[in-house]
Fold these 2 entries.
Entry 1:
Amino acid sequence: MTAYLNGQFLPIEEAKISPLDRGFLFGDGAYEVIPVYSRRPFRIDEHLRRLQLTLDGIRLPNPHALEEWRRLVERIIADNEFDDQSVYIQVTRGADSKRDQAFPSGVAPTTFIFTAPLVTPSAAQREMGIAVVSALDNRWLRCDLKTVSLLANVLLRQQAIDAGCVETIMLRDGYLTEGAASNIFVVKNGVLLAPPKDHRMLSGITYDVVLELAARHGMAHEVREISEAELRSADELWMTSSTKEVLPITVLDGKPVGNGKPGPAARQMYAWYCSFRDDVMRKSDV
Ligand code: PDD
């Protein structure tokens, strides 16, 4: 498997970084995960724009121009054998010769890209929906930044795994924020509800696609605070992300969501999502 590290394309096994890298010492870096279908990246410009927002948010100069990023990602896709991929990009504040929290001076950032086969939900998960648990959102107040400081997300996601579930849904001050690695939507009385984009959640690329599709097809939707009571009395819950796409949640904390089966709105949105994605991919052929 070919990866990219600081200007070089090389087998992933040969990619080595210093233990003094600030990504390793402090989680001081940004990342992106870009889904690739039939060797074409989906919404790459939006992912690269969000990378820029994260880098700006953590005051780390972007090591590459947009066009360079596109070329690097295209080369990684071409150099690897699978057609559907999940491309991972990471930029850290690099490796100094000492350990100090304050920014180093004159240190080059570390840029790393690798790819893996894209693993989307199984047919059984689509058919049955998935089970999730809820937890207090105990993360910092810049959840809009996609940084590699993910320990809270790691611990939160593990709570789901320990309970035999797939994802952990978080609540802050009694309101829904997002999943440990996904955004969450609620359907109640025929209206799609989405939490507002602010510092409490990541501005998901899939979240944006879902809201664009709801607007385009006239699905009633509202972007607003969602209370715990609304979450627990939802007719449908969905999780969305670049790798999970749009996936129905049918069990929350051991209780059925709605009638306990994937709902009609989730099925409809997933169909719109697939045809929109396939259309975009076809157009990027020319
Ligand atoms: N996670 N919220 C969080 C905390 C996330 O980590 C993710 C994605 C999302 C969904 O964003 P998008 O639709 O842009 O993928 C929301 C990625 C896939 C990950 O960390 O693996």
Note: Residues 33, 153, 178, 181-183, 202, 204-207, 240-243 surround N-(5'-phosphopyridoxyl)-D-alanine (CB under 6 Å).
Entry 2:
Amino acid sequence: MIDGDAPALGDSFGRRFPYLRLSLTEACNFSCSYCLPDGYQGEAGPRFLGVAEIQRLVRGFAALGMHKIRLTGGEPSLRKDLEQIIEAVAAVPGIRKVAITTNGTLLPRRLPGWHRAGLTALNVSMDSLQRDRFHALTGHDRQPEILQGLQMAQALGIASVKLNAVLLRGVNDDELPQWMEFLRERPVSVRFIELMRTGDNEAYFLQHHRRADEVITQLLEAGWSERPRYPDAGPAREFGHPGHRGTVGIIAPYARDFCSSCNRLRVTARGDLRLCLFGEFGVPLRPLLQSDDDFDALLARITTQLGLKAAGHGLHQGQTGLIPHLASIGG
Ligand code: SAM
Ligand code: SF4
């Protein structure tokens, strides 16, 4: 905690939640094979939260000690008002980090504007370092733009730049040596994420799920070592190597104790609070985002709901909760 900030929200299991993942849209321009293999099928429903609603929401969470916001989706860069959203969120007292998770296609055109608006951290998804595989996985041959965007991020001096790669058996799980080479001179972190089963991807999951601990073994054998965790760190385990400027993070949702380090809450693009990525229910916050007069009621609803957060997800029992795919909530 920094002097003057509220302590981060906590739950009945002693976990703290300084971190909010806010989805800005369910739409996406990619069709990643494990997420939206048939592309986004524009579901009907209320429109996504607008800038004023988002600012009220973030003010509420910040008053409860939240200090990091990640903007996600779907593909958040498809929002035409993204720059305004970043500016509005960054202006909320108490918010110290504004991050985005994006597929990176619009980075070359839009990153400077996001940076000026107050973006402090960038996560870009890139499941393969090989252009043809990337094309096959996402349905789009746009890796060159992403690599250009990463160079731009470094030139702009964005403090935190990370890459996300989902581990996929038989698809990209032979690329660790290539990644290590990539990280030799680049001061970025790549996070290998274990594929999660969702409502829609069961057959794909059964065919391509690869356990993250197999990658940890390979890293250790190659001389990488695990870095100490800092307080409030999320569930990623970080690895470094003296000969490499970049680092590796491992996100293993099926690992024992994964949920005990949970430090985040989620809000969907239509304003539902989700206590767990794989939870069975959402709590509508949108009715309390229409007027500043509902500020106290908003805080009360969030804190009451946090009392209901479960100790862990039911993924081991095959329970994937409400979500058909992660584009519907933001990963
Ligand atoms: N469209 C943006 C992107 O891809 O970066 C943001 C939203 S996407 C849902 C957020 C992250 O979730 C991405 O890194 C993506 O690879 C990951 N993801 C999506 N489906 C997943 C799954 N079933 N298991 C593990 N990670 C998944
Ligand atoms: Fe779109 Fe991201 Fe899902 Fe890929 S992982 S389909 S980029 S939302």
Note: The CA atoms of residues 26 and 186 lie 32 Å apart.
